[in-house]
Amino acid sequence: MTTPAPTGAITYAGAGVDTRAGDRAVELMKEAVAATHGPEVLGGVGAFAGLLDVSALKDYRRPLLASSTDGVGTKIAVARALDVHDTIGQDLVAMVVDDIIVVGARPLAMTDYIACGRVVPERIADIVRGIAEGCRIAGCALVGGETAEHPGLMGPDDYDVAGAAVGVVEADAVLGPERVRAGDVVIGMDSSGLHSNGYSLVRAVLAARGYGWERHDDELGRTLGEEALEPTRIYTADLLDLLGSPAGAGLHALSHVTGGGLAANLARVIPAGLGARIDRGTWTPGAIFSRLGAWGSVPLADLEATLNMGIGMVAVVAEDEADATIAHLGARGLGARAIGEMLADDELPAAAGDDVLTRGAKGVDGGAVLMSGVHPGRG
Q: With 80 as the cut, is the pLDDT of residue 209 above it?
């Protein structure tokens, strides 16, 4: 039996933190989290630390651990506005594990952190269910998490999410710039839409037009909110399958197209002395990209430096494996096509018109990427 607090006493609940709501949220999410656990996960939900049996790593000659951490940015503002919270978690997983697969690593385990102004058990459970679904898609165990209530620091309906994951790759199988050669083919893989970057631009464009998330757009075939909340595609399982196939032997590098767009992220995996010539004419970005550009009179260079423009992951592969790679991904339902080629840096043509040349990015003194040509339908 709990002794009532004396009249006028200041309690934790009175200060804005409801620990019982937190316990209720855990009860609502337990089943979804447990569904991501295989026999390698020890213990259950609620432990101080997640335990993972990594005995299988003994079979590696030289296992390297790969780690990544990320969030989903201001896409959360859309989820809050629409009171739809069960897709943000999948976005979070995608942003983390698809960075891990870039080096060729298999994600093993993930943890999450949710900070909020007030714990609403059903909302927190929806977020975590989305994280669990993302982990299921990626083949990764969700082994821990934390929900922190911050009254006074955050508004009652404010929240933010972050996650971290760890994976493993054999040392001599690491993908990256060291493998890239002149003559390699650059393959672009379809995004599912906006993914989880550039929402500050998206929100600014829609606000300037006076468009709300409930607005239906005939070209999109759904509301702007539904388009904006489309979950980020998770490429991990498809790429692990590719790496395990004969075509995977030709895979030299991967680039996850996130903040900064295609060119800036691709440049991070190109060695100095080489450059990628990307032909915009090889793919048509989804309708949302052209709509945003038109609605906001956004320059093409700014769109490309902010949004993924329909390409969410890029592979650099040996020329003789390019067709097999595209066919393998297509058989798994992932649209992919050759969008460019690797050249010696001094063989890149000079930029002209709407061409944009990027050299290195995000602290990496790497190669160059030339975006050239015109997307089909842009005249």
A: yes
Q: Which of 213, 230, 258 is nearest to 88 (CA)?
A: 230
- The residue type found at 283 is W
Whether the Cβ atoms of residue 316 and residue 252 lie closer than 8 Å to each other? yes
Among residues 29, 36, 99, 46, the alpha carbon closest in space to that of 71 is found at: 99
Structure tokens at 102: 């870039």
Query: The tokens of 344 are what?
Result: 């010696």
pLDDT at position 252 over 90: yes
Q: What is the mean pLDDT of residues 25-41?
A: 68
In angstroms, rounded to a whole number, what is the distance separating the alpha carbons of residues 348 and 352? 12
Residue pLDDT, tens place only, 328-365: 999 999 999 999 999 999 899 988 888 999 987 666 77
Given a cut of 90, whether residue 275 has pLDDT beyond it is yes
